[in-house]
Amino acid sequence: MSDRSNLCVIKVGGSLLKDSGSYIEAAKNVKRFVENNQLPIIVVSAAKGITDTLLEVAKGSVESFNKVFDVYTEIARELGSQRVFKRVLDELEILKRIAYSVSGGYDPSLQDLIVSFGERISKILMVEALEVVGVRALELNARELIVTNDVHGDATIDYIATANHLEKIVNSIVSTAAVPVIEGFIGATEDGRTTTLGRGGSDYTATSIAALLKLNDVYLVTEVDGILTADPSIISTARIVKVMSYAEAMEAAMHGAKRINPKAFEPLEKFYSSTVYIGSWRLFGTKILQVIPGECKGPKVIMHKTSHEMPYIAIIGEGVANVSFIKKVVDIIYESGVEVMGLQTYYYRPSIIIHVKRGSEISTLKLLHRKIFEEVE
Prior knowledge:
Layout: E1 7-12, H1 20-35, E2 39-44, H2 50-57, H3 62-79, H4 82-99, H5 108-115, H6 117-132, E3 137-139, H7 142-145, H8 159-176, E4 179-183, E5 186-188, E6 194-196, H9 201-212, E7 217-221, E8 243-245, H10 246-254, H11 266-270, E9 275-279, E10 286-289, E11 301-305, E12 312-316, H12 323-336, E13 340-345, E14 351-356, H13 361-374
Helix pairs in contact: 1-6, 2-3, 3-4, 3-6, 4-6
């Protein structure tokens, strides 16, 4: 087995990829890892907003195709390589032929094929950006390496088949020392049909590669410095959660936490417990471990869900389901006169769910955040 000690995985989220400048900035930050004697495998998302636009293309929208064309050709042109510009044009021409052959009606396999062009073109641009800043790059093809089932729109990775593919190429990655770039979010069935992995699927690609190659570190790069105790647009005093367990992160994801995909932790639980770092290029503020020390237990995140039949507040963290913490929450609610419609907790899940009257979610959220996360200090 080749020495993989300097290999890591970096997922570059689409929220960071807006124009040619942001591809170059991402490439410069990758170069910092390389200069620190790390060899990152880059998992790249589609540029910002492109996936949603491609979903409209799959419904037959010519205007949406033109938008994708404009965004990607402008980035390619500004990166300066005629060869890359032509490659992007060729990909867009293939996309156009596929999209304009759509005869109406929902075809999930065709939709996956159309949506996959977001990542496919983004990978070409990321490779070029790395070359521009002086980093040798190597293109990998997710549709050749990431094997999935045939559930279009929300495919699951076939770990054994994917591990076999990855093992065949890892030695050449290490020996060439070129930075590999692979599309996130997409894969293919055993018989070669393109699939997508569901919303936030690039995280799942990144953690699967890390777990299957037994790599220690995965970096999920977003526009914020880490996971926060609450939505900062609602709670201005929300702060970064420094350490979380896989169980806490999965629970938060199940309740709709941004920047976490629930499937991302499955390969880490099954195959290898990589450390996941979430944050920005400036600061990876949140570290996610399989098991956290006892002193790190307690409430981590509070969030609300209004789309649910009965709105609720979720408090997430290992230890919140014990009687003393539940009593603390009940006392806060009782003393504040909040009308509660129901309270749910399970000993084996790191959360408390508080159902409240519609319209009182935000005020209850602010109250509980203040009492649990701020006043304790």
